[in-house]
Write a structure and sequence with these properties.
With 118 residues, this protein is mainly beta. It is 3% helix and 37% strand. The longest helix is centred in the middle third of the chain and has 4 residues.
Length: 118
């Protein structure tokens, strides 16, 4: 019977008081209601060790408190309340830094972006 088969994973607490959750490819990120950013996931290959941690890893910003974050397959972006954005991860095709295609570790490199009203 289907009821007797239990192939589901056992739930595990990763981070408490999550306000935003992001999962993509081989890693995840979560921002708590108090503004702490945690990352975790695969750390072998490509830029994964630059983005994630094998266990949930608190990612402090030396640029000020983090307001929000997002990302893609092998990179994350975060921005601070000052309106500046930073990128971490796989930099191929100069997508994170116009001067380099190198991988970018935490705490990231500032993105040069234009505001919407320019």
């Amino acid at each position: 019977s289907l009821a007797s088969v239990n192939n589901s994973a056992t739930p595990r607490l990763v981070v408490r008081n999550v306000a935003r959750l992001y999962g993509r490819y081989v890693g995840s990120a979560a921002m708590t209601k108090s503004g702490e950013l945690y990352t975790w996931g695969q750390t072998a290959g490509s830029a994964f060790k630059d983005i994630y941690g094998h266990q949930p890893t608190l990612r402090a910003s030396p640029y000020g408190p983090i307001e929000g974050f997002g990302g893609g397959k092998e990179h994350l972006y975060y921005w601070t309340f000052s309106g500046k954005a930073y990128a971490v991860g796989y930099g191929a095709a100069y997508k994170l830094n116009i001067n380099s295609s190198d991988k970018i570790p935490w705490a990231g490199v500032q993105l040069r972006v234009l505001p919407a009203d320019v």
